[in-house]
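Thread: Modeling a multi-component assembly for a lab meeting

Hi all, long-time lurker, first post. My supervisor asked me to bring a structural picture of a complex we are working on to next week's group meeting, and I have zero experience with this. I have the sequence lines for every component (516 residues in total). Could someone generate the structure of the whole assembly? Inputs are pasted exactly as I received them:
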Amino acid sequence: MTNLIEIKGVTHAYQTASGPLPVLKGLDLSVPEGEFCAVVGPSGCGKSTLTRLVAGLMKPDVGEVWLHGELVKSPRKTVGMAFQNPVLLEWRNILENVILPLEIVAPSMPRAKREARARELLDLVGLTGFEGKRPSELSGGMRQRASLCRAIVHKPDVLIMDEPFGALDAFTREDLWQTMRDLRAQEPFTCVLITHDLRESVFLGDQVIVLSGRPAHSQYVLNVDLPSDRTIEALYTPPAAKMLAILRQQIQIAQGRDGGAH
Amino acid sequence: MQVLRKVGVPILAIVMFLVAWEFLVWVNDWPNYKMASPSDLPPAFIKYGWLFIEMGWQTLWRTVLGLILAVLFGTFLGMLMGFSKLMRDGLYPILVGFNAVPKATLVPVISLIFIGQHDFNTVLMAFLISFFPIAVSVGIGLSTLEPEYRDILRSLGASRFTIFRKIALPKTLPEFFGALKVSVTLAFIGTNLVEIVSPHGRGLGALFKSGETNGDYPLMFAVLIALAFLGVVLYYAVVALERIFAGWAERPAG
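Re: Modeling a multi-component assembly
Sure thing. I ran the full set together rather than chain by chain. Output:
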């Protein structure tokens, strides 16, 4: 099986006024094609840096990031991104917001075709009937649904999500986990999900990577041994409880390295 | 009912203001040379009717031309400061310092440099006084763009220009129009400074000056009202433009 994402020995530091701040140190990570990789770790351990590296928005000081067997040196059109803040454009309605990436990636695509593609996705996430609404007219959960549609409208190989459900209430979050699961069944993509929520990582992930405290490396890899069409109820079974306990323990180890805070 | 309310409330407010003004003059028994009352104004407008239209036009076109220049230059400066920290650090102190200089003190300077160029001087002053808010707001709007907005398009390999056109520019429009509303009223101050101070000037400012010279106090107050009227007209022209280009930023009331 080929690895779609291959991160090899990445070390990176930010230049700050008080000298270099190392965030990643010797990080290795590989995600096979079509797999869902959830990344958890203590606050400020460099998880967001990881997303920017995979997206090609920055280059690591040391090490390599490979996508599809190609060394990542700059942004690529085959990547989709979603953030905690849905960053929808207020001057566009929902349909036009979802279309945005197609305007960049496929400028020659006929408008009718773009719209059909966007409507198809909006239907999948349950936003039919809201195409003409402004983002400000939608709830937080609906905005995040639209943001997910925008992230995959151009059929990216890789979907990179940086705590996309972090600002939602618990019930809306579980709704969106299920939406995410259903989307994957319809639209296969490889996914990297950064999250703080261990249950989320177990529900959505095929593998869960625990990063150590800063500077981060891959501390622990958990293969999630649940069926791919898992339900929320599966989180309340003994195997899931065991995985959650392991992850929690690993996070505590990671935090311990961070100076024993919390 | 809605329309009636929208038009009726401001008109009622204006009528109440005029009544209060009339009452103030009447109760204090002020003579005309101290303060004219609203009832003195219609005769003044009728007496100099054509002059008001001619001079009002002079003031208006110079102000608008100055504003257009301010928009172009202000946006350009704002873009420089918004995209480059170096430019921001370098330009801000100069800009703030320049803006702190009372523009009235520049009138004699400009008049000496460009002797007799009345139109040019007036437009220049309207421009000088009004570009600052635009530059600052565009600069702040661009420099405070959340990185995620840029990343959405940058991760797809979009060029800087595309990001500017599709994201930064539309996102800055509400701030831009906010600044333009301030600049509109400032530009009138600039125009009138030059019109009043320059000998043999034209425009409403010159009409005001001639009213002063001839002791025609109702005329002076009539000019002030005419200026206020022009200011309101231009302000609402900007509001109309804002509705068209940045109407999305307006939230429904309640």
